[in-house]
From TrEMBL, chains A, B:
<keyword id="KW-0805">Transcription regulation</keyword>
<protein>
    <submittedName>
        <fullName>TetR/AcrR family transcriptional regulator</fullName>
    </submittedName>
</protein>
<keyword id="KW-0238">DNA-binding</keyword>
<dbReference type="InterPro" id="IPR009057">
    <property type="entry name" value="Homeodomain-like_sf"/>
</dbReference>
<dbReference type="InterPro" id="IPR036271">
    <property type="entry name" value="Tet_transcr_reg_TetR-rel_C_sf"/>
</dbReference>
<feature type="DNA-binding region" description="H-T-H motif">
    <location>
        <begin position="25"/>
        <end position="44"/>
    </location>
</feature>
<feature type="domain" description="HTH tetR-type">
    <location>
        <begin position="2"/>
        <end position="62"/>
    </location>
</feature>
<dbReference type="InterPro" id="IPR001647">
    <property type="entry name" value="HTH_TetR"/>
</dbReference>
<keyword id="KW-0804">Transcription</keyword>
<dbReference type="Pfam" id="PF00440">
    <property type="entry name" value="TetR_N"/>
</dbReference>
Length: 185, 185
DNA sequence: GTCTATATTCCGATAGAC
DNA sequence: GTCTATCGGAATATAGAC
């Protein structure tokens, strides 16, 4: 992929996380990169094309990250995931899922499908991590692993939303309590 | 308040919950009510005025609901709150907090302040409910009540977001596991 | 309080030159 | 691959008649 195209996707990713998909324009991308909106349209004819690319890159990033953690104990894998959210919190970002879920009903079918693909991938990974972690006595929780995965995902997602409104300490308090719940016997 | 004004706020509330604040227009409100966009502007000169009113009505609704539950045991008060979210889930709504937190950075200062006021009110009530519930042995959880309040709020908030993307069963699985966590000893 | 009409701005998108 | 120029449409908002 060309350098400009990369920068466009990176800028779009940032804008989705800070302002939401429907609240940024091609101009918001073009101006900081010192190009014209027509150049953005050359790489991504429609805004939905850009949205799909942002999601696809996020899916790849998630898959390559989790693959790198594969050899770690499950509690440490989970801590790595929390660290990803911690970093976003420090940058004033919300997560892609949270941002795109809010605007979901306004999306074209191809974008909706991509969002669902991303959600399913994260929940699947989390469910498997929890199941294995419980088996290996690295993680402790009650109930079904897939329900717990949904709970943890919702905690991480909303921790960034609440941090934005209530101050960044909200993230830390949620993340700390979350890991404590899962790691103490 | 006039009847038309009430209908406008109700319609705006619905649109915020289904499409997001930045993704609906005065036309989306005026058309279904069979009035013109100028009539909406008469009641709410700027869109932010309408946003503030929607939030204020939600705060009042929350306060009057929780006041009605005051005599109930804390676990039942919590179940009542979950029921409010369950109803929204059935209607395809996300919660105001979730929707407005996503768009937060795009809001004018008066609207941002109102969102923060709403968030603080909900967390305060939840924290108090949890504290009293633990004291009365109706609710069981580890750690500080205010951290647990943030966790529960994030679960409820994101349960509606995830339901939208992954199907409405996501809400039920999260809500059921949540109440089970808190109610079993 | 609601209307018609319009001002203004911005957006996504495209045509065609370079 | 990027530009200038522009189209068509939609959004927020206002002026003034009724």
């Amino acid at each position: 992929m060309s350098e400009t195209k990369d920068k466009i996707v990176a800028m779009a990713d940032r804008l989705v996380r800070t302002r939401g998909f429907n609240a940024f324009s091609y101009k918001d991308i073009a101006d900081p990169l010192d190009i014209k909106n027509a150049a953005v349209h050359y790489h991504f004819p429609a805004k939905a094309d850009l949205g799909v690319e942002v999601i696809e890159q996020e899916i790849e990033k998630f898959n390559s990250s989790t693959a790198k953690w594969k050899h770690l104990p499950e509690d440490e894998q989970l801590a790595k995931l929390v660290d990803v959210f911690r970093k976003h919190n420090g940058q004033g970002n919300i997560c892609l899922m949270g941002s795109l879920a809010t605007d979901f009903e306004t999306f074209s079918p191809p974008m909706q499908t991509k969002v669902q693909e991303m959600a399913n991938g994260i929940v699947s990974w989390l469910t498997n991590c929890l199941e294995q972690g419980r088996k290996n006595k690295r993680l402790h929780f009650k109930g079904a692993a897939d329900a717990r995965a949904l709970i943890i995902m919702s905690n991480l997602q909303s921790s960034l939303l609440l941090s934005r409104v209530m101050g960044p300490s909200a993230f830390r308090r949620i993340a700390d309590q979350l890991m404590e719940d899962l790691c103490q016997k």
